[in-house]
Amino acid sequence: MNKEIRIGTRESQLALWQANKVKDLLEAQGYTTTLVPIKSEGDIDLVTPLYEIGVQGIFTKSLDLALLNNRIDIAVHSLKDVPTQLPKGIIQAAVLERGPVKDLLVYKQDTSFLEQEGYIANIATSSVRRKAQWLRRFPQHQIHNLRGNVNTRLQKLAAENWDGAIFAAAGLERINVRPPQSTELDWMLPAPAQGAVVAVCREDDDFCKQACAPLNHLPTALATRIERDFLRTLMGGCTTPISAYAHIENETVHFSGELCSLDGQQMFSVMEQAPLEQAGLIGKAAAEKVLSEGGDKIVAQIRNAIK
């Protein structure tokens, strides 16, 4: 264990929290590690909406290159940011036990505006999925683009004349910045793999594969694989209005998935369940069901809109 494992990470507070979590778990096994912060394209351009950038893996690309160029040995990501197709030569080494999966509304004063008929609220998010789901429920509201790390987005919300902004609960809670003025959006289905952290390494790096293996949480790995199968079968990209959540109860996998049009006016939803030992293909099957029932037309519309 005398080899030092170089852990690549983005520079935001949340990314460093995730990388330090992996660092601590590896060092608890006796490994020597060091963090290597690397800027991503998604951290540099904080203005352009993600769907306009049109690059899969906008938050992971720089780390992938560093990994393939042997500048780092492991890269740590939010799994929801990782493209469903990993670059050649890179493999998923471990998925850590999942944190909170829900989305939150952080609001300025209170949430009474949600009940006011005819009120045009101003809500901020950079997520195509959150935008579509919000507009489906509140079609009269105005959506504003909000980019940057968690702290930057909270500051922007405070400075702008907006009613609220949508965040992942995991991001705010992991770095202890969830404001009191926040509420869980129980009705909003999360992004595939939301709340999960992944470590990836080079395919030929047996040392790192062995080091990461004990970090892999099998229930989380299975649930997120099912969700990402749903995403991959429908579209393949992470900047799409696709939601999915799988969880295990009493040896049974329960899965929910949604595909929305970009404006939220159309939606296909699916719910499936299967015994644990038979659940491997449940995400793919659910996506195929959505496509066969008319979801293919929404997929075609989305592909044309984001070209």
UniProtKB/TrEMBL annotation:
Its EC number is 2.5.1.61. Residues 5-207 form the Porphobilinogen deaminase N-terminal domain. It comes from the Bacteria. GO terms for biological process: heme biosynthetic process. The keyword Transferase applies. Pathway: Porphyrin-containing compound metabolism; protoporphyrin-IX biosynthesis; coproporphyrinogen-III from 5-aminolevulinate: step 2/4. GO terms for molecular function: hydroxymethylbilane synthase activity. It catalyses: 4 porphobilinogen + H2O = hydroxymethylbilane + 4 NH4(+). One of its GO terms (cellular component) is cytoplasm. Its cofactor is dipyrromethane. The keyword Transferase applies. Residues 223-291 form the Porphobilinogen deaminase C-terminal domain. Keywords: Porphyrin biosynthesis, Transferase. NCBIfam families: hemC. Belongs to the HMBS family. Tetrapolymerization of the monopyrrole PBG into the hydroxymethylbilane pre-uroporphyrinogen in several discrete steps. Monomer. This is Hydroxymethylbilane synthase. It comes from Chitinophaga tropicalis.
